[in-house]
Amino acid sequence: MNSEIKFKVNWDSVSGVFAVPNEAVDYIKLANEAAVKVLLLLLRYGKDCTAARIKNLLGYSEETIEDALSYWEQLGMIVSTEKPKPTPAPQPEKVREQPKQEEKPKELPEQPKLSPTRTLTPKEIAERIESSQEISFLFSSAEACLGRMLNHTEHRSLIWIVDFLGLPPDVVLMLIEYCKSINKTSMRYIETIAVSWQEKSIYTHEAAAAEIENMAKSHTLSCQVASKLGLNRSLISKEQNFVNEWSARGITIELITYAYEKTVEAIGKLSFAYMNKIILTWLENGLKTIEEIDEFDAGKKKELSSQQAQKEKESHSYDLDMFDAFALEHTPKLKGDEE
């Protein structure tokens, strides 16, 4: 492409103009499509530019509009016109005289440590991009992977993951690529996985690759479980935890389905907790196939049947010595026997 721009504004077709602040251009690199469009409408319509009007013209959700306005507000380009509600003056309270006692200092609960990058402004983010090639590469690669521009909230989240959680940019990018592969690209989900990686000390490319392989197996198993069990929804957190454990132990979808059938036979409904008890019993007895499970169950039934038969036999048996003693004691004696 020729570096020279061979176009100019056709002023004859323009019915009017409005001013655009220089800062809008200076920070347009970090602004996503929604932020640019919302700003143009705000500059065009001024005080008549309501959230309802923006939503009607652009079709954006309220959350997207708020995020766009927040971006320019943090740059100082726009300010809220809403007057803060006056805080009512505190009323003096009648103080009752109390006997003086030595007050023990109250122990304040430990406050969670928060990363300062959570409050980075768009200007600070822009400066970080300029000063760090790794962050710049992470942002551009993440946008290429997700197929869209990141907004400043997402920029702050990625910096928080790198600075506060300590995950290297290349590991974060691996995480984003995995989330894209399972169609879960919300930054909240990415942050949740990033926190779990920090807890597991996953900081290297090799560790991340191994974890992704495990997560992929678990995700595949989750989809299979939902399908086999006829669930028209995603697994809830507790159910997912069971599946993750089964995946880690190498339990196949065939055994999980069989455990489901056994559960329904026993209690008449789906219960992941009951299924888990069945699966744990199989594991404890080294059972890995349906054939082994059926053979084990058949042996158990035979053993129980034998025990029951033995109990019934014992309950109906007689002590022969006691029978003889009873007979001798109660047998009438003849006259000849008495002599």
Quick summary:
The chain has 16 helices and no strands.
Give a written overview of the molecule.
This protein has 339 residues and is mainly alpha-helical. Helices cover 61% and strands 0% of the residues. It is built from 16 helices and no strands. It has helices at residues 22-26, 33-45, 51-58, 62-74, 122-131, 133-146, 152-163, 169-181, 187-199, 205-228, 237-248, 253-267, 272-284, 290-316, 320-330, 335-338. The protein starts with 21 loop residues before the first helix and ends with a helix.
Give helix % range: 55-70%
List how many beta strands DSSP finds.
Answer: 0
Specify the overall morphology: elongated
Radius of gyration: 37 Å
By helix and strand content, what is the structural category?
mainly alpha
Order of helices and strands: HHHHHHHHHHHHHHHH
Strand content: under 5%
Rounded mean pLDDT score = 81
- Which parts are unreliable, with pLDDT below 50 for 5 consecutive residues or more? 102-114
Helix count from the secondary structure assignment? 16
End-to-end span in angstroms? 140 Å
Largest sheet: none
Strand and helix layout:
Layout: H1 22-26, H2 33-45, H3 51-58, H4 62-74, H5 122-131, H6 133-146, H7 152-163, H8 169-181, H9 187-199, H10 205-228, H11 237-248, H12 253-267, H13 272-284, H14 290-316, H15 320-330, H16 335-338
List keywords for this structure.
339 residues
